[in-house]
Amino acid sequence: GQNKGETDHSMIEGHMSHDQVVSLNDSTGKNELKIPSLLKSEKDEEGIVYTVRAEKGKTEIFDGVESDTYGYNGSFLGPMLRFEKGETVKIKTVNELDEETTFHWHGLEVAGDVDGGPHDALKPGEEKIIEFKVDQEASTLWFHPHPMGKTAEQVYNGLAGLIYISDNNSERLELPDEYGENDIPLIFQDRTFDEQKQLNYNAAKNEDGTIGDTLLVNGTLNPKLTVNKEKVRLRLLNGSNARNFTFKLNTGNSFVQIATDGGFLNEPVTLNEITLTPSERAEIIIDFSKIQTDDDLALINEEESVLLPFEVSNKSASTSKTPVEMNDFSLTEEEQDLPVTKTIELFGMMDMVTINGKKFDPKRIDFTQQQGVTEVWEIYNKPDMMGGMIHPFHIHGTQFKILSRDGAEPPENERGWKDSISIKPDERVKIAIQFKHKGVYMFHCHILEHEDNGMMGQVKIE
Ligand code: C2O
Ligand code: CU
Ligand code: CU
Asked: Where does the Plastocyanin-like domain lie (predicted)?
């Protein structure tokens, strides 16, 4: 903060300043990365295609020790669901936990009653069948629980899984698409384990966002990834409760980003690093046939901590391309000329977080909007006396377009569909947003403790 010498705010009891975040241990690369299994679709007489169960289990994260964890259709994290644009999906969701949960489909454009927000809690033992048509373009989405006040803890304990959507365009593009071979899902999460190697959420909890010293990628401790000398597509998800990641290669080599949260960029964008705040995704391609190094090669975080060492085999193989034209995303003049009709002010820290001065109230509708009508929302991150912090802002049930950041065009790699955006202190972001379906949808900070602490509101689409 400013005013050095007056108060050392990091000393305020219980407050861990986010500029002095706990650092992450380096991955030793001891374990080959786990790849989430693909959930098989199997249509029964009722037309149920998938069953997704939230369950408790024990997982050997550390050699020879069982940790108590949560998972979907397994003890930790979840399987990968693969949908095709245009298909109708029927999912039986089952709560086998000892507590309430919901099944939220983050980034999916579905009706409010399918979205799985805090109003849709299933009690222990309950199940619910949901049905929706997949009506959006190829992208990498995810799913996680959303019960009132308990989202952070349930995600922390292991409830999170991935969704891939494919369409004609993604099939046409000849991108690397061999799942687990050259098309790799990567869920980055930081955790703290106690002496018994347990995820003791209440002990680890920080009201301003729980940050851990231990990195798990797809639930793998000390992961490494073995790749061939070819183009490899990494689908990055920041699945942490609160930690931001800035991904780069330790060699300084560049890579290309091909997709944002909700679809392909128009063309690949060359980057040396990319920052993802909680819940943001990006697809990147690293060409391992082009990187010559005698040293170890790894994906690292900004402070040089090793996230994912690569072992490059001598096999060169695939013929995948990085296409030049991938999408036809655009900001129309009409969208750019629309007046701001909704303003959102994010403010506060710890358990004092608010949106437009209010905390979440499940009985209050904060905004209404017409189905299928584009509006412009302006989101402002109001700094506090200590400067404030980044809030990753997310809206349910839709993908939106960033019109501007502080009046300027968004960076090239944000000119694509987004459902979550990082907003810096004192930054003002305008987005063009419409909803395809009706219902009540949440918008909130995706620092999960902020969400649980009430940094959330509701928009009703009629
Ligand atoms: Cu990942 Cu309310 O969402
Ligand atoms: Cu969501
Ligand atoms: Cu926040």
From this structure: 56-169, 196-290, 338-461
